[in-house]
Amino acid sequence: MALDKFQIAQRIAKELKDGFYVNLGIGIPTLVANYIPEGMNVELQSENGLLGMGPFPFEGEEDADLINAGKQTITTLPGSVFFDSAMSFGMIRSGKVDLTVLGAMEVSDQGDIANWKIPGKMVKGMGGAMDLVASAKNIIVAMMHTNPKGESKLLPSCTLPLTGKRCVKKIVSDLAVMDVTDEGFKLLERAPGVSVEEIISKTAGKLIVEGEIKEMQF
Amino acid sequence: MALDKFQIAQRIAKELKDGFYVNLGIGIPTLVANYIPEGMNVELQSENGLLGMGPFPFEGEEDADLINAGKQTITTLPGSVFFDSAMSFGMIRSGKVDLTVLGAMEVSDQGDIANWKIPGKMVKGMGGAMDLVASAKNIIVAMMHTNPKGESKLLPSCTLPLTGKRCVKKIVSDLAVMDVTDEGFKLLERAPGVSVEEIISKTAGKLIVEGEIKEMQF
Amino acid sequence: MNKVYSGADQAINDIKDGSTLMLGGFGLCGIPENCIAALVKNGVKHLTCISNNAGVDDFGIGLMLQKKQVRKMISSYVGENAEFERQLLSGELEVELIPQGTLATRCMASGYGLPAIFTPAGVGTEVAEGKEVRIFNGKEYLLELAFDADFAIVKAWKGDTMGNLIFKDTARNFNPLMAMAGKITIAEVEELVQPGELDPNQIHTPGIYVHRIFKGTGYEKRIEQRTIRKKS
Amino acid sequence: MNKVYSGADQAINDIKDGSTLMLGGFGLCGIPENCIAALVKNGVKHLTCISNNAGVDDFGIGLMLQKKQVRKMISSYVGENAEFERQLLSGELEVELIPQGTLATRCMASGYGLPAIFTPAGVGTEVAEGKEVRIFNGKEYLLELAFDADFAIVKAWKGDTMGNLIFKDTARNFNPLMAMAGKITIAEVEELVQPGELDPNQIHTPGIYVHRIFKGTGYEKRIEQRTIRKKS
Fold it and tell me: Taking Cα atoms as reference points, which of A170, A179, A165, A169 lies closest to residue A207?
């Protein structure tokens, strides 16, 4: 069965390592924070100027001066630091952030990503997404494998305006875990109960399937 | 009579205006701080990372963590700020420092300055001088008109390696106050008792003398 | 040299029609509420506003949009604003979208006297159109110019009468960067103190960058996305 | 992920012959005394040292020069050091002089992911030789590349176990800039505290830039130019 958004987040959390500095985008990526293994030290960076982001505040303890990049009220953990937006993107551009997780509308089998603009619709802006994808050492995309019409979002090339080129390293969808390699998407794991055939049929871009593809472990 | 170094500093102090941020180089320029008019608000910038430099500390109150760009122990005044070296030169390069006063070995009538290197001698380095001269809106050079051999230090072009090109705006020497114009040095004032003829004879670069040249007032 | 102004009305009084303004803040966090209110009251028009966001319909820069005071917005993200969308679609308003890190760094570059930066953000996208691309260590970068503004308007937590500023939490965001990039920088602060009351080691924006300062009043500090958790 | 080291010997233990080191400090102010002593004891050689100054004969980097551990110095000012002069004239030591603001900004550029900067410092001088000159707004600038180092070694006043650093007075200088530019950054601090003990608004160097931290001991803090005034 296809994963729900919580399971996608849970699977991505398995990519975390002790000592990682991580930037989590809005949507499913935000949920990854709930699955950081006990005892593992992972620091969350919020590009509006915070390292050491904590959970949402208890009711009545919200502080308008303390928000994340999604403009949500948050808290900080011991050892947190505030900085300005230039230093924030400085640490992103200089590769100090170990992992960036973000959503996508489309990803190409070259690792291009489109997630900011749909022609004909009001464009809200790229925010920090273009900086993040152009800079991160390691980018994981959290996404649904297909759009609501059932069309593949993993394409030979993106049809929407790009956010960044050749930057996505790994994709965790509701159906599969894939690396993005020089030769295309490489299938690594499938969602429990989802067949390799289904993944192939729902992947429009080049998909490499080699050997036995195991089910994801949680 | 030619000015001594204290009088040069005193004359330069007359160029200060209320609210000025000023960087004073090592040597005669440092002495300018002693002649800031009572009640005038002038903030001294030290390029090692301080705005709001105060006088030397009283004996026993020296702090090794608190020095100026000449590595001298100093104090701070109320409202002072510490910052790193990049921000320090940032405010210099972006023209926020209103006036820079520094010494020179040679100045050309085009406003070139040489003050860091003598061929054949051990080169100690330019420190912050090249940044300062390339960036400052307003540079006053404090210098002796001639070298110990009696040779002019105000030249048609510098013989020593340059610190910066076309940057000096004004010179206060022991003999005269001069602007640096597109046409050359323009004599503005002479030291008390020093003749225009003496200044002309000791200025190797082009010197413009127009009208009556008044004696400096202190 | 007195930098202290009586309030927002006096501090923004000489801003003329057609000026370019930088306004600090991220979303509604750390925005110069007092100056925005004074600009709305004053009615100055045809403004170019450089700000990461454009406020919401009835708060922040949204208030200036309602009064049609803004000709052009330069931002990284302009969602959450229906009036903005209407003006944009009708052609009354122009918008230039810039990656957030590029926006921040171009402000900083101005305050650091760096005329341009190279950034990888936007390489291979429509943001790169017409821009110089240059390769350093095998990676492509865009040349982006520093930018300044006629006026930078920022909000700080504490400030002293010499213009030294301290920001609080994530309300810092673009404020110290824009403070460095204004030909004239206006700072509104929650607490205005005398020189020497702020720790000189802990000042975020040195007063040399700030031309006018005043104590703001009545901060609403509206929250855009109130997210909470239950006590268990 | 433990960043806390027992002391300088352990923190610098894997620095190999031929490494490039950045060392914070201005003159003798804010230099990493403990790490320098450990490097002298350890005897590692053929080092390239990037530091604004080269210490004095018997303190700071001067101690490493005495032991002939340095192959090349990259600095803005290297006076006050007779042994330095001797080695330079004899050809044992190479020196590259860089304008101070350029040195500082090239370190910062590295930590900000900016591959190069444009600066007016050195235009028209021998520093410009072989460098690209570019005109922005009618003014000439040199293209200067960001630089990093195998190890950045800095001295802070306070730090926490996550690597967050606070500097004191003018001992800040190059330290936070170099801290951002080290492939591995080692920080020695006068006071090492637990996470949460430092005010998150007041940290100069976020721990993300710092890989190793230890509590230094026995700081001599030698004064180079003791200048005083008399009580009147």
Answer: A179
Sign of CA dihedral C87, C90, C93, C94: positive
* pTM summary value: 0.97
| Nearest-5° Cα angle at A172, A171 to A175 | 120
Which of A203, A164, A205 shows the shortest CA–CA distance to A183?
A205
CB contacts of C114 in chain D (<8 Å) are 105, 117-119
Give which of C100, C167, C190, C203 to mutate to test A binding, by max A Cβ within 10 Å: C100
**What's the rounded Cα separation, in Å, for the pair C185 and C164?**
12
C-alpha to C-alpha distance for A89 and C103, rounded to whole angstroms: 10
* Chain D interface disruption, residue of C110, C117, C165, most D CBs within 10 A: C117
Q: Say which DSSP state B67 is in.
A: B
ipTM for the assembly:
0.97
DSSP B160: S
| D121:B48 CB<8 A | no
Distance CA(C214)–CA(C174), nearest Å, equals 19
Q: For residue B179, is pLDDT > 80?
A: yes
Residue C105: list chain D partners with CB under 8 A: 112, 114
Distance CA C178, CA C182 (A): 6
CA distance C194 to C164: 10
Q: Over chain C (232 residues), what is each successive 10-residue block's mean pLDDT? A: 95 98 98 98 98 95 96 93 87 96 98 98 97 97 97 98 98 98 98 98 98 98 94 76
Topology given in CATH for the domain delimited by D8-104+147-215: Glutaconate Coenzyme A-transferase (3.40.1080)
> What does the alpha-carbon distance between residue D174 and residue A91 come to, in Å, rounded to a whole number?
18
With vertex at residue A105, the alpha carbon angle to CA A101 and CA A111, rounded to the nearest 5 degrees, is: 65
Residue B47 is a catalytic residue = yes
> What is the reported pLDDT for B121?
86
Query: Residue ranges of the domains in chain D?
Result: 8-104+147-215
| DSSP codes joined into one string, D170-200 | GG-TTHHHHHTTEEEEEEEEEEEE-TTSS-T
Whether the CB-CB separation of C15 and C40 falls below 8 Å is answered with no
Residue B218, CB-side half-sphere exposure with 13 Å CA sphere: 11
Tens of pLDDT along A148-206?
A: 999 999 999 999 999 999 999 999 999 999 999 999 999 999 999 999 999 999 999 99
The pLDDT > 70 percentage for chain A reads: 100
- Say if residues B168 and B180 touch (Cβ distance below 8 Å): yes
Looking at residue D167, its amino acid is: F
